[in-house]
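ok so i was messing around last nite and threw this chain in just to see what happens. nothing serious, just curious
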Amino acid sequence: MKYFPKLRLSHLFDKKFIVPLILSTMIFSCADQKQNNKLGSVFERENLIAWCIVPYDSKNRTPVERAEMLKDLGINKLAYDWRDEHIPTFDEELAALENSNIKLQAFWFHSGPDPSNDKDLKIILDLFKRNNTKTQLWTMFRGWPPSFDNLSQTDKVKTAAEAVAYVAQRLDELGCSLGLYNHGGWFGEPENQLAVIEYLKLKNIGIVYNFSHSETQIQRFPEFYPQILPHLYAINITGLKGGYPAEVVPIGDGNIEEKMIRIIQASSYRGPIGIINEKFADDAADGLKLNMEGLKTILKSLGDNKAVETYSYLKSN
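result:
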């Protein structure tokens, strides 16, 4: 976006930069404003997604136990991450979520440059088809051959777009969508994901932005956030502490995430907000509560009283 100045990490803390940015971001994608008024605060507990709670859970909960845990926490959406040992219980997971009225917001998938020969993709697509599942596939594309680094930016976009298009088209046949997931490397940079989206122009591709993989991107967040905003399927938040690169910590324990949350709060974004447990607590329930408590503290400081009220059952901070 040419009308956004080149910003540095220090600008996240500078009011003379942050105020114009917030105002600009508030009017960005103004077609969504009517919807914004209906949904209230984007950080309300009812808008949270639980993320990174399947492999990162010392209790190794069953699908039914996991659904019960989410209901106890008042979380009604799950993004499902998994490992090979969870494949046999995929169908059971979907059934448990449906029986507990918990939305399967997304399913995780790690792809390489040739997804057409990826057995895991076939397993997931078959799962969606037999269960008539309509959801998002959050996908990180990695494992490009060494020759990829020697390509021009234009050819990198075209090469990545081939893999992305294959997955997106298979999902479209099932009424599902593809969320591009930032997780390091060339493909993890928001500007490159935008380039792929703009090159393909497919309607079922969006972006899932993760604070937990933004350690080297935080200085550019005010610059690229308005650009990815129209494409965002979800934002997964964590705490971010220190300088550049930042350290990932629980929400509220950092010194950077509040400024980024403020930008999101003031924008037209009204999609879901993910909170994660990866390496924050042995018990997934404890990790989710830890991050909800930290988010509640930040929301208090931002004056988002409507959202704070939805966390009233949590201990005071």
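not much to say yet. The radius of gyration is 19 Å.
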